Amino acid sequence: MLSLLLAISALLFASACLAQRSPPGFAPFKHVRVAADDGAPDGVLRIAQTADGYLWFAGDTLYRFDGATFEQIDWPEGSGRRHASPSALMTDRKGELWVGLRDTGGVAVYRHGALQDMHMPDPPRGLAAFAQTPDGAIWASSLGLDKRLQRLGDAGWERVDERLALPPGYIMDLVVARDGGLWVALSAEDGGSGTLALLAPGADRFQIMDVRLSGRPKIALDRKGTLWTSDAAGTRMLFGPDGAPAKGGIVFPALPGTSRAAFAFDHDGGLWGTTGAVGVFHIADPFTPRATPAGNVDPFREINGLTSDISYVPFVDREGNVWIATESGIDQFRRASAIQEAAIPADPAFGLTMAKARDGSVYVATRRTLFLAPPGAAPTPIRTLDSDEVSMCPARDGGVWVVERNQTLLLHGRQAVIGPGYPGEEGRIACAEDAGGRLWLGLASGQLMWRDGDGWHRASGELAKLNLWDLTTTPDGNLALIVPPDLAVLEGDRLKTIRLAPSGIGTPWAILPGNLPGSRDLFVSGSSGLVRMRGDRLRQLDERRFPWITWVRTLQQTPDGETWLFSRTGAYKVATVDFDRAFDDTQAPLPYTKLDALDGLASTVQRGGFAGTQSVLAGDGRIWFLNRQGAAYIDPAHLPSNKIAPPVTIRALSSGGCTWRDPTKLTLAAGTRTLDITYAGLSFTVPQRVHFKYKLEGVDEQWVDAGTRRTVSYSNLGPGQYRLLVMATNNDGIWSQQSARLDIGIRPTFVQSWPFRLLCGVALVVLLWMAYSLRLRAVARSVRLRMAERVEERERIARELHDTLLQAIQALTLRFQLAADDLPPDYPGRASLVSAIDTADRVIAEGRDRVRELRTQQEGNIEQVMCDLIAQTGFDPAVQVAMAVHGSPRRLDPLALEEVTAIAGEALHNMRQHAAAGRVTVEIRFDSSFGLRLADDGVGIAPGVAASGGRDGHFGLVGMAERARKLRARLCVEPLADGGTEVVLSVPGAIAYKRDERRPFGRFGR
Fold first, then answer.
1. What are residue 943's phi and psi, to 5 degrees?
2. How far apart are CA 458 and CA 482, in angstroms?
3. Phi–psi pair at 311, nearest 5 degrees
4. Residue 596 near residue 536, CB atoms below 8 Å
5. How many CB atoms lie within 10 A of CB 958?
6. Dihedrals φ, ψ of 179, to 5°?
């Protein structure tokens, strides 16, 4: 696909055409041209528009146009064809494009982003035209004399020219009548004459109509359904919508040199025609009889700016724009907002002057010619002036003053009262008549003169010291003068100076009186803003708030509440109420509508050296203004507007070197991260002013304002489902009724898929378990190490007790025994001594037992240990003691068992001593960790004691907690909701169980 991206501002709406003056009849239109050098297709012969809004051009190949890009449409890859060579285009009732092809290519239809062959079995060498009748049948005519007419119906393609008795000759055009009949215009083989035939609805043969046609006739229906023809003899009506011959029809003569005419009707009823050799023509009102029809045919040729005099076909799009296909490019004509008056020429050397009379007539002077434009009428020259330097201003009696060096004229219509000119040879600046009837004239030297009944006088006193730039009268009739950098007002004979520097508008260069009835405003424009003087108060608008409001040359305010400002950059329309509010409120916005070259504004305002009135509001409501091309006007009440919402479409999506045209739903390959999407808003009136907004659901939370950009790119996208929405607004701010939508799916790569994520999750769990197991093993090793140290310490204590204390006591006992044996049996103290020796033997026996206990570790049968503890605790027989075991019993590490036994013993002791319980429950749990639960139904532990971990002076709970911490165990002592106390101990399995009894998960615990 070849995409020719045009920079619209520089190419499609090239400014080259602005240098051409439109001929009479074309002034109301903005002419835009894009030549082949600018990227337009070569030799376009046919134009069509499909329902989606695209314009289609048949040239050397097939192109479609979205207002910015000419996109070449070829056959899809794999079709066995390459370039389509179109010769005919038609949009059917479904809105699809039918393409007739040269070189026996047959017929194709553009569907779903590609050309599809319609399999015409025996195509002619080329197709000339299509038509679709109400029954849905497609009619196709040949370029030659073979297979001249074919029909596509339910049964397929059928050749019908002979069966329906079509008259001989080349088929020049096919048109479907309002009643469903088929009109066929034919040209004789020698091209000398033509024939018109009609296949009426239900008829089985063509009827030859009794009309005279010259060679190569073209036919078309106007908006009422009347059939027209255009040939070498001219353009005229033939038959009305009812099929009856047209009566009193006008024959508009062909332009001299016409070789092949084609025509179309615009939305206003105007007729546009091509000639094949001498440009194009336009008939603004072809339905009104005229004495000289030739005078209504307005030509437009290459010399006027047309891309070529070799013009082929006109076309009117859905917005009313007229397109002309020529040998060298494409031309567009659309209604202009600003109309340059062709009758009034420019004068770059001396400039133009203008004034308005009280009756609303407008006078314009240029090139020593005075023009008069009465309300509702075109300007006409009324007088030749004596010089190029002229000043004009309104007279208090309703007329207009015209001041020259050698004469002063007071005009009323075409009548003039002539008086003497001003003395001296100095050039003029501007004139104004004050409320006292004095006519003031500013001279190029900056001096001031005035005229009354006694003639001309030079200003004296303070007035003589002024160096004026421009002058006018205020709404009160006082004389106002720009004397840079200040403003001066002459109230009677008193001169008042107003400093403008504090307003910050820069260098003042234009003085603009308010023109609304009852207005007291006087505006002064400068290089940096605009100031309003209302009474003695000044308010300003500067470029910091509104950058566009600099160098305003003139302004007009209409009774409809609009204010028009004309500056170096264009014409700006604002609401008068907003205009006033912006002066009074420094925070108020000032919305505006700008007109520039895109709207037909051929030039900006005159340069500052040409002073005086630069615009007037005429009696018919038109605003006339002077510019560098002459005089132009805007009719605020009849500005063209575009109320048609632009269709929006997704043109293409590109990613990874592949491009999909007209996508609506795509699933992209795994790993796709970057997308480039082009879209179009199909409004062709002013495509530069088509604005867009878009949102990619799944990425963008809000709509993104794209301005005039027609491409969006996304990167770093992940797998998932996305939806792109695009909306557009046309040149008049009308938004599209529906957004274009593109659903995008991106497949995940393996590393982005859910199985991979699941594997990662499993791996993470395994790693965490391994880390936990390693940590648990390290903790268990640390606990066992400390417990082993305790065992060693106990053994050391046992050795010391055995080797020192017990041995010493034993020796002492033996000595006492010897002493006792030496005493007589009846010795008074011998019995006490023997009793003490017996007690010492028992102490030695108990010491040996304690040493044995220090050296001997308990076996790991926790169930037996708990039974022994319960028995040793000595619960009252009335107390029920129950024990339950859960899980497969396992042997505990002796050192852990010792700590567990001590904790359990202390808990059972507390229950016997303090609980006053009737039932005690012991639960032992064997699983990945060791658990022990002891509970009673007694009075319960106080919540404060449970929370603090014990009472002052009591160390039972404190000791239990310390032993649990040594085991890295979790101990919980708390009251039960139904009464009683619960003690729960949970010891990690790696610490609780003997090394050969632990059962970790798989190999990771080994």
1. -55, -35
2. 18
3. -105, 140
4. no
5. 12
6. -85, 5
Helices (H), 949-988: 956-966
Residue 996: predicted pLDDT: 60
Q: How many CA atoms lie within 13 A of 347 on its CB side?
A: 21
Contact 362, 379 (CB under 8 A): yes
Q: Which residue has the tokens 């400002």?
A: 565
State how beta strands 494-499 and 508-513 pair. Answer: unpaired
Distance, C-alpha 720 to centroid of its chain: 23
Structure tokens at 182: 């088929």
The predicted structure's pLDDT at residue 7: 38
pLDDT digit string (tens) for 197-222? Answer: 999 999 999 999 999 898 889 999 99
Spans in the chain with pLDDT lower than 50: 1-20, 856, 997-1006
DSSP per position, 678-723: EEEE---SSGGG-EEEEEEETT-SS-EEEET--EEEE-S--SEEEE
Question: What residues form DSSP beta bridges with 637?
Answer: none
pTM check: above 0.90: no
Strand (E) or helix (H) holding 855: helix 830-855
Distance separating alpha carbons of residues 627 and 646, to the nearest angstrom: 33
Q: Residue holding tokens 């009074």? A: 584
H helix runs in 801-829, sequence order: 807-822
Give the separation between CA 352 and CA 365, rounded to whole angstroms: 6
- CA pair distance 180, 178, nearest whole angstrom: 5
Buried/exposed code over 317-328 (b: 16+ C-beta within 10 A; e: otherwise): bbbbbbbbbbbb
**Pairing outcome for strands 55-58 and 62-65:** antiparallel
Half-sphere exposure of 737 (CA within 13 A, CB side): 5
What SS3 state is found at 896?
Answer: helix
> Which three-class secondary structure string do you get for 436-493?
CCCEEEEECCCCEEEEECCEEEECCHHHHHCCCCEEEECCCCCEEEEECCEEEEEECC
Task: Give the single-character DSSP code of 735.
Answer: B
* DSSP codes, 745-790: EEPPPGGGSHHHHHHHHHHHHHHHHHHHHHHHHHHHHHHHHHHHHH
Residue 504 and residue 528: Cα distance in Å, rounded? 7
State which amino acid sits at residue 687: P
pLDDT of residue 860: 59
Quote the CA–CA distance of 194 and 188 in Å, as a whole number. 6
Both tokens of residue 577?
């109420």
Measured CA to CA, the distance from residue 267 to residue 277 in angstroms comes to 26
- For residue 508, report the phi and psi dihedrals to the nearest 5 degrees: -70, 140
Q: What is the dihedral of CA 479, 482, 488, 492, to 10 degrees?
A: -10
Residues in the chain: 1006
Q: Which residues contact 600 (CB under 8 A, 6 or more apart)?
A: 29, 30, 336, 337, 338, 339, 340
**Whole-number Å distance between alpha carbons of 233 and 235:** 7
Contact by Cβ (8 Å): 410, 421: no
Three-state SS at 375: coil
Q: DSSP string of 248-306?
A: S--EEPPPTT--S-EEEE-TTS-EEEE-SSS-EEEES-TTS--S-GGGG-EEE-GGGT-
Count other Cβ atoms within 10 Å, centred on residue 843. Answer: 13
The pair phi, psi for residue 264, each rounded to 5°, is -155, 160
Residues 482, 446: contact at Cβ < 8 Å?
Answer: no
User: Using an 8 Å Cβ cutoff, are 119 and 104 in contact?
Assistant: no
- Nearest 5°: phi and psi at 474? -75, 165
**What backbone torsions phi and psi does residue 561 show, to the nearest 5 degrees?**
90, 25
Non-local CB neighbours of 778 within 8 Å, separated by 6+ positions: none
